[in-house]
Amino acid sequence: MGVAWGILSTAKINDAVLAGVAESDRADVVAVASRDQSRAEAYAREKGIERAYGSYEALLEDADVEAVYISLPNGMHAEWSIRALEAGKHVLCEKPFSRRSADVERAFDVAERSDRLLMEAFMYRHNPQTRRLKQLVDEGAIGRLRHVRTAFSFALDDPEVNVRTSAELEGGALMDVGCYCVSGARLLAGEPERVYGERETGDSGVDLRFAATMRFPGDVTAQFDCGIVLFGRGELEAVGDEGSLFVGDPWHAREPLIELRRDDSSDHVEHIETGIAQSYRLEIENLGDAIRGEAEPLLGRADALGQARTIEALYRSAEEGKAVLP
User: Fold this and answer.
1) Which residues are identified as catalytic?
2) Residues 134, 276 contacting (CB under 8 angstroms)
3) For labelling alongside 38, which of 7, 19, 203, 318 has CA 20 to 30 A away?
């Protein structure tokens, strides 16, 4: 029997998760909650969800809901993850969990006390393309890893009325898309020893663009840039002393392809295909299997804590105008 899921909020990102659930026989979305009953009911009818609740608290009281997916704005992630865990639910919380490492520690402490699972939802980490990229780096396909370069950006249609530009809800480029760049660099290089960040801040007080340099153990460096007012881009390159691995769509993996480059000649580019997979289905199934005791969660406390510590340090660096230690 599939895990019974509830969703907190009617955010657009839910569509990708619902599409993943529709492909799976190991998960069922049985309930959705909004702060407005009529909105919840309309959403449930549209999406074919059985139960609709006019408050998040009401959904958490539903004994049939085993796990919740939290797609609320960033600033509400930690609070509602903790409340869901305390209500006895397993939690998949949309990235980024928090910009504060203390939030991560507190939430995972609650998860342990409640004997429930908590996972940060970086869907790309579950994709076969990501797994193959990590494997190639670890196997020495490019020799010794020396540098990681990542980017993720897009242009908001109307920044003035978008939740991504709300300081109160902890929006901003680093939180929204830069967190992927941080995660990708950490996946390949470990935890950073020093970071330096620069940002462009908009009228609302959040970063519209963010660029950073990070140093990792073994003298590995990483650079990334992200933005919510830039031309749409998403890429990752891992550079070693014997070659590089380039991924043109590392985060969505809509057309997964890894290029193994040996020199500047196109004759020395090996194309590595991993096949198309629905990343949201894979993350839902991973946590569901863990709930059933049949797998381990791919992402846990250590990864979420490392992520939050790095983001926390990057913001501190941008505020202080100097490199800082995470």
Assistant:
1) 95
2) no
3) 19
